[in-house]
Each structure stands twice: as structure tokens, then as C-alpha cells.
Amino acid sequence: MTRCPRERGDAQRREQRMLHAWTVEEVAGIIGVPYRTVRRWLAQGLVCLRLHKVPQPRERLRLVQDDVEELWAIAALRQQGVSMQRLRRILVRLAGMRLSEFKAILVDGDDVIGVREQGDLPPVWERLTDGQILIRLETIRERLTDSPGERLGEAWELLLRAEEVGFGV
Amino acid sequence: MESDVIAAFRRLFVPPGKRHGAQDGAGWRTVHEPVSDDDLRAHLQGGPVIGVTPAHRRGAAWAAGFIALEVDIATGDLCRRDLVAAREQVLGFDGHRAWAAVRAASEDLGIPGAYWTGAYSGRRSLHLFLLPENPLPLVDAHAIAKAIADGAAEHGVPVCTACPTSPDGWGMLFRLPWGRHPQGAQGHLVDLGLWELNARPPYPTDAQALGIIASRRVPHENLQGAADIARARRSPVSLGGVPPEDTPKVHLPDTDLRITRPCIAGLIQRGVPENHRHEVALLLRSELKAAGFTVEEALPVVARYARACTPPWDLAEAEYDLRHNWADTDPAKRHVCPGAHGSRLTRYLHERECVGGARCAAHRLGLFTCLWGPHLSGNAKALYAALCTLEVGFARRPGDEVHTTVAQLRDTAHLVEYAFKAARRELEDAGLVTHRRLSKGRGHGVHSVYRRAIPMPLPEAGFHWEAAAQGSVNGARSRRV
Questions:
Q1: Residue A56 and residue B381: Cβ atoms within 8 Å?
Q2: Full domain range(s) for residue A113
Q3: Chain B CB within 8 Å of residue A56 CB
Q4: Within-domain flag for A160
Q5: A146: in domain
Q6: Do B413 and A156 touch (CB under 8 A)?
Q7: Which pLDDT tens digit goes with each residue over B375-427?
Q8: Do residues B252 and B244 lie in contact, with contact meaning Cβ atoms separated by under 8 Å?
Q9: Is A164 within the bounds of a domain?
Q10: Residue B351 to residues B261, B310, B345, B359: CA-CA distances in angstroms?
Q11: Residue A92 lies in a domain
Q12: Whether the Cβ atoms of residue B186 and residue B122 lie closer than 8 Å to each other
């Protein structure tokens, strides 16, 4: 049976809204960092995983898009030679932001600036001054679309919502 | 003359009091004035219905002007569909059965059945009055009413209101006979026969019935003897403080977390209008009791609810209502969702406070993630979330049984078989979930009944870290060994 374009669009939107998750191995491959490095970052608590606030021993971890984007930002910063001490300071700033709202983030010293719409502004990277780092979140999102990971059921979505929002849901 | 009838009606049914209730299309409201002749005239002529409490001050003591029982015979649904059929049911076999049970209980106390006066409420209930010759001490009247209600319950007839509802002046109002029910028909008196109930004509045709009722007043000695028998029989009633032995003690940091239903949380936050506050207080009590609250813990919650009501409910009265009824509150009477086909109150609550399945499930999960989030694996948490989802999907209350299959649970929680079993074991070891198989065999189609433990057990100290030190798969599994 052929679906009409509108139905196809609806199905596509539903598919996009559905919660997807990736394993640590998959994430390591996507962001281009060795698996053990990602495990170390997680063990050090650089990223607080949405679905596993306190990972249990030998538990199979599921990382959602927000987790992957944070790891992508860490990887990008480390690639630019940012020290772990400075990285931790930056992550404190980053923790208060919802990365999904931004197309890119600009790191200036210890400050973090979210860039919402690149189209409205002259390209940010043309105005970068010394020491400023631009992390393009669009890149990782494209990669995640190419390898969509595991589709989780409604229970996981509910759990994520309860974990994120806390009691006042 | 009408004024004579009103005076006779007042002498029989209206004790002196500073306030009364009036019910119209919008529900009950309290009128802070004594019942006037105009009020009674309006009541008899089909206007707002008057409700009075039998309790009144007599010197330093409280006295009762009457004893009254209300037995709901027909269902609310039947009343909505067919009021004539509901009336026939009240005056037919079911009504007579209720009367026979009350009569038997009354005769056990030494009060002959001939002293009783019956009335049809105009909707679903049969009202039964016992009018003393002289005002009776309120404590005695309460003991008699409660003993008769208990006796009727032993005969299989639940009495929904036994007035006076308290021995010390608080309590519910009782609808006077001969009024017109705002959601029903004209009420009238009923002859309580040995073999059947006979409807009497409505007011004013039946005005001479007041003379018959006046001749049926109960002598003081009869009631005094009945009160003695009732007191001797009555088991001590716990007024709270000591929780039932089978209720595990739960001490949690925040009481709000323990109310895991958004509709109930909404009630506490927003209150209800005056005409609903007593019945909603019952729902609230049963919910709090089911969630493991003690009376002392429930008190601040009920106080918040009382303050939020419109107009605010007197805190002393709300506290009395809580303490006095706590022991008798049955958690099984909690609000059942959805209320599309439920009682009037259930529908009211559903329309006003329901937030939808997804939010309700998330709310139910809130306490779990707060308490157990750091102690369980993601799979176990997902399985628990799946149970919450199914609970809401099947319109079950927190802690009700959920009938499901392995396939359905695994699908909702998105777990493979090994992970599913490990997660289930983890939850069972933590005492959070119990399950029982209903069918034999293996595989996806095995039918089982799952139940979440409510009140929720608390994680033990060192639950996770001890296990982690032993290198087990997760905290909970190591406890099996």
C-alpha cells in the first residue's frame, strides 16, 4: 500500500520524535574518540547520562541525543587542546544549557555562548578571535541521523521525562 | 392551614439550630441562620431542599432531635437514565430488603419497627427516621445510629449515612422529607410494611401524615435501653495515632512526593466547592491511607485541602472529620479513573482534575525515581515505568493489579528476554513489585498479574554499594544470595 505524502510526513515526524539511544561503542565511533576514552569520561562524571544518573556496575548504558551532544562538545574541546581543568569549568557552564536548543556553541575563555540561528548572523567562525572555539552541533546531529541507533519504547520516554522534570511533571 | 402544617413539621423534624444547609441545582451550601418558616415553605413547595443536623445545644450538653439513616438503593447511573425505574427499585424488593435489615438491627436494640418513619428522597435513597419523644443525649443517639448501621451491614445492607454522624456536635446534615430533589423527583413519605413498602402521596395531600408520625415518637426509656445495649456492643474505635498493624511504616522526606496521583494532588491544591467537600474528603482519606500515611502525617495535607476549599472548610471540623473517620476509611474506596461511567463524584473529579495518561504515569513514577533512581539499573527502572504506563492504560489505581503478558511488558519496556527477567528480579528483590503467573508454559504469551508495592518501600542504606563491592551485576541481584 502506498502512503500519501501527508501520511508519510506524519510517520516521519513520529519517527523523529521517538526516543533513540546509542551504546557507548556506537557513540565512540560516531564522535571519533576511542571507546576507552569515552568510558573514562563517563566514569569521571563529565557527562551525567539522562537515563543512567548513577550507572550501575556492568550495566549496559543507553545514551540519548543530549548525552551524545555533550560528549561531542567534550571531544571537540579536547581536540582543540583544552585542558581537563578548564574543560570542567566549561562543563559547569554547559550544564545549565539545553544543547538541543542551539545550532552551535561558542566557547570564549570559560564562557559558553549558545548560537541559535546561524542564518540570521554572519558566519560566526569568520569573527572568531584568538582562543575562541566554535562547536557545531549540526554536524553531530547529521551523523546521528545517519546512524539512528536503537529505538526505545514509551517506558523509557516516560522514565526520561520523570528523570528530567523531577516530581512536578 | 399551611402554617399549622409547617409548625407541626418543624416540631417533628427541625431541631433548633444556628445554621442549616440548603440544596439547589448548584449543590449544597451552608446557611448561617436558623431554618425559617419561609425556608420550610419553599422546601415543601419544591424549592431549595433543607438539610439539618439533629444535634443542638441543650444547656451545656448536646442533644439530638432525631436519628436518621440513609440507604442508597438505586445506582446513580440508573437515576440518570430512568428515574421512574430508580424509584420503583427504592420502593420495591431492594428497598424492602434494606428496611428489613434496619428493622432487624433496631429490634436487636429493643426498638420495635413500628416506631420508624420512612421517606423516599426523590432520587436513589430510602430515608428512615426515628423521632424521640424528648431530645436524646447526642452521645446516646450517635451510639444507637451507629449500632443500627452496623447491624444492617451484618445483614448485608450498607447504610451510607447514620445521623447523628458524631457524638460531639459536628457532623453531616440530613435532608428533610417531603422536599423535591434538585436532580430527581418529588420526595414523599413511605409506609414501612412488614412485607412491602407503600408510597404515600406527596405534600400537601399527605399533610395528615404528620399526626401519624407524631404518635410514633419513641419513648425515652426505649432509647435509653437501646443506647446502653449499643454501647455495650460497640468495639473501641481508634481515633488515629496508631496506624493499622498491616500498614508498613514509611518515613519519607516530603509528603507531596507520596501522593502519586495528579488528580488527588490537584484536589489538595485547589480544593472543591462546599457541596463536594465531605465526599472528596473521604476520597482524600482513602488515598492517603493507601499511600501509608498515619493520621498525624495526613493532618497537614487535609488542612491544606480544607484551606483550599471554597469557602474554606473550618480546620477544626476537617481535623475532626479526619480523626473520627480514619479507622473506618477503606483504601479500596479510592478514586477510580476514568470517571466517564462512574459516580457523580468520580465524573466531577475526572472532568476537573484529570491530566491525561502520560502525565499521570509520569507522576506515579515521580516518587520511584526520587527514591530508587540511584539504586537500580536502567532496565529495572524502565520495567517499572512500563508497569506504571500499563497501570494507567488499564485505568488502574496505584498498587492495583495489572494483568498483562510478558510480550506486552517487554514491548513497553523495550527489553530483551534476559534483560527483562533480570530487571524483574531486581524489582522483586527490592520489594517494589510482585508478580504471579496465571498460565503455564514459557515464552511471550505467559499471562501474569503484576502489582506495584504501595506504600513504596524505602531503599536500604548501602543497598547499592555493598553489592557493587561484591562485583555483582547490580545492587539488587546480590541480595538474593
A1: no
A2: 5-154
A3: yes
A4: no
A5: yes
A6: yes
A7: 888 889 999 999 998 988 888 888 888 998 888 888 888 888 888 988 999 99
A8: no
A9: no
A10: 15, 18, 10, 15
A11: yes
A12: yes
